[in-house]
Amino acid sequence: MRILISNDDGIYAPGLAALAKAVETFGEVYVVAPDRERSGSSHALTLHRPVRIHERSPRWYAVEGTPTDCVNLGVLEILKDDPPQLVVSGINLGPNVGDDVMYSGTVSAAMEGALLGIPSIAISLTALNDENPNFKPAQRFAQKLIPKVLEKGLPKDSMLNVNIPNVEAYEINAVEITKLGKRRYAGSADVRTDPRGRKYYWITGEDLGFDDVEGSDAHAINHGKISVTPIRLDLTHEHLLELFQGWKL
Length: 249
Ligand code: MN
Prior knowledge:
Helix 1 (about 15-25) packs across helix 5 and helix 2 (about 65-80) packs parallel to helix 4. Strands 3-4-2-1-5-6-7-13-8 form a nine-stranded mixed beta sheet, with helices on both faces. The protein is about 25% helix and about 30% strand. It is α/β, with parallel strands linked by helices and about 250 residues long. It is built from seven helices and 13 strands. Manganese (II) ion binds near residues 92 and 106.
């Protein structure tokens, strides 16, 4: 059996190697990942320049493109003769909760897998840049979740978004099935001036934390739990159909 893994932190990210190691017991692992960090690239597909694939070592491919390019080319080109039965994206350095999923390349790689009809999982670790990442609990949980997904499958047009607290394994309390929460940021850009006097911007935003709503992904990881959120690909707002039908457009 073939498993495709990807990420948005790039082919050299330690989380990718940790994920490859964790899933190798379940099948033949193919790594197709961006040649550099592409965090925040969402579901972008590269359409207006050539995308080259470099085989770095057997079954490890670096792609000059986005996470979505990687999964798309991984499934439809590299593995076209024998497609993978599972796509796993991660292990991302940093959580992907609430609104983050709209920007996340990690989640989008898994969404692309789901769009291609393959059971897909995104895995993120809550480590911040200045913290030491501990991938062990994420590896261990991947080894628990993957056989379940392979056995039961995932419903059509869905994927699982997993967030793991960056703590020692024994500190993890439980696994909670959650809804997307709400993450708060303040401001949007750090404005600076270049040596020629022109303004430029670092898109950022101060992290104000999460709305601590019970049942949400953010609440779960804040309380030392692993969060598993089922995500749907159909973004239709079902409850609003009737409202807008009432507009008689
Ligand atoms: Mn990332």
